[in-house]
């Protein structure tokens, strides 16, 4: 498989959830290799627009090379800046749907030079946007033991977080920690693997989430979506682990559930508060998809429509 291949997860379900309008304006917040974007473009009319974001320059360069569609606008930016870009385009409140397919793409994982994989040797980078910020190696060199342990615990649910952080700091007394396999081996010394899970899975996930500020990005973008979307505009969000899904779930619940009405007021006087969103529920990948694409096993799609 070429290093540019990414098999889109819950392809039909996530696009169907947008309930596309033929000449609507849509956002793909996570272009990747453009699988979902192509699916959306294929179903839209010639007056429609798709604005695609990715903070990874290689995704945008790939898009410029392979996608030649006048309806597509590409933006190299974290999606948390979506509201600013959309405002600059004069499209605030006019977007008919936002698709987010969170996490990393297969080309990012498969390219050893990006440092996301604990299975292949490469520089410990892990930045989706390599034009800014600290690499994982730089952060691990400057953070203290407690900070490292907290990240691994909070974003990886790793019970051995303190042992791992202590092992990392001990290693760094002798030599600098620069590569993916150095880190994977250190973690394997203190964590036992479970079934098919590599011992370093949770540690790599945690450091990646921290380095890319993934949860902060997601939380901010969900808030901004209220201004970006038009009435009846939809959110279609695929997440891949429970920490991420919890943020999406809570956002939708908080913005769609009616607060209990004050007791004692006559029903006639009780104006129902209009909530920003209506919750359209969640879906999982089909058994068939899970059989063919392992990555879809943990996918959760949540959908909401703006009121
Ligand atoms: C799972 S892939 C998307 C795959 C895509 N849906 C497809 O079908 O090819 C996630 C992509 O989103 C990008 N990404 C993740 N977080 C981002 C953020 N906060 N801002 C912008 N892009 C982000 C990653 O760089 C990656 O290319």
UniProtKB/TrEMBL annotation:
Main location: cytoplasm
Listed EC numbers: 2.1.1.199
Annotated binding of S-adenosyl-L-methionine, by residue: 34-36, 54, 79, 101, 108
Enzyme class: transferase
Catalysis: reaction(s): cytidine(1402) in 16S rRNA + S-adenosyl-L-methionine = N(4)-methylcytidine(1402) in 16S rRNA + S-adenosyl-L-homocysteine + H(+)
Keywords linked to the UniProt accession: Cytoplasm, Methyltransferase, rRNA processing, S-adenosyl-L-methionine, Transferase
Protein's UniProt keywords contain Calcium: no
Annotated localization: Cytoplasm
A GO molecular-function annotation: rRNA (cytosine-N4-)-methyltransferase activity
Gene Ontology cellular component list: cytoplasm
InterPro entries: RsmH (IPR002903), SAM-dep_MeTrfase_MraW_recog (IPR023397), SAM-dependent_MTases_sf (IPR029063)
GO biological process, one term: rRNA base methylation
Pfam families for this protein: Methyltransf_5
Keyword Amino-acid biosynthesis part of the UniProt annotation: no
Sequence similarity: Belongs to the methyltransferase superfamily. RsmH family.
Function recorded in the entry: Specifically methylates the N4 position of cytidine in position 1402 (C1402) of 16S rRNA.
Designated name of the protein: Ribosomal RNA small subunit methyltransferase H
Organism: Candidatus Thioglobus autotrophicus
């Amino acid at each position: 498989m070429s290093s540019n291949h990414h098999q889109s997860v819950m392809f039909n379900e996530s696009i169907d959830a947008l309930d596309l309008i033929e000449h609507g304006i849509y956002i793909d917040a996570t272009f990747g290799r453009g699988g979902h974007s192509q699916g959306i473009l294929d179903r839209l009319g010639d007056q429609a627009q798709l604005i695609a974001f990715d903070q990874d320059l290689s995704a945008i360069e790939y898009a410029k090379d392979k996608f030649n569609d006048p309806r597509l606008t590409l933006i190299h930016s974290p999606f948390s800046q979506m509201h600013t870009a959309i405002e600059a385009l004069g499209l605030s409140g006019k977007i008919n749907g936002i698709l987010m397919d969170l996490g990393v793409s297969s080309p990012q994982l498969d390219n050893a030079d990006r440092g996301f994989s604990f299975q292949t040797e490469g520089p410990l980078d892990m930045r989706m946007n390599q034009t800014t910020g600290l690499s994982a190696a730089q952060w691990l060199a400057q953070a203290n033991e407690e900070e490292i342990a907290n990240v691994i615990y909070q974003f990886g649910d790793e019970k051995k977080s303190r042992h791992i952080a202590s092992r990392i700091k001990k290693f760094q007394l002798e030599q600098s920690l620069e590569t993916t396999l150095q880190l994977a081996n250190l973690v394997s010394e203190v964590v036992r693997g479970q079934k098919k899970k590599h011992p370093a899975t949770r540690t790599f996930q945690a450091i990646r989430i921290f380095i890319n500020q993934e949860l902060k990005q997601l939380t901010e973008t969900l808030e901004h979506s209220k201004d970006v979307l038009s009435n009846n505009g939809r959110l279609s969000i695929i997440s891949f682990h429970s920490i991420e899904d919890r943020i999406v779930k809570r956002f939708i619940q908080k913005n769609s559930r009616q607060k209990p009405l004050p007791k004692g007021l006559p029903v006639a006087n009780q104006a129902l508060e209009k909530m920003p969103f209506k919750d359209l529920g969640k879906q999982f990948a089909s058994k068939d998809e899970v059989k063919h694409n392992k990555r879809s096993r943990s996918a959760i799609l949540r959908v909401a429509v703006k009121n």
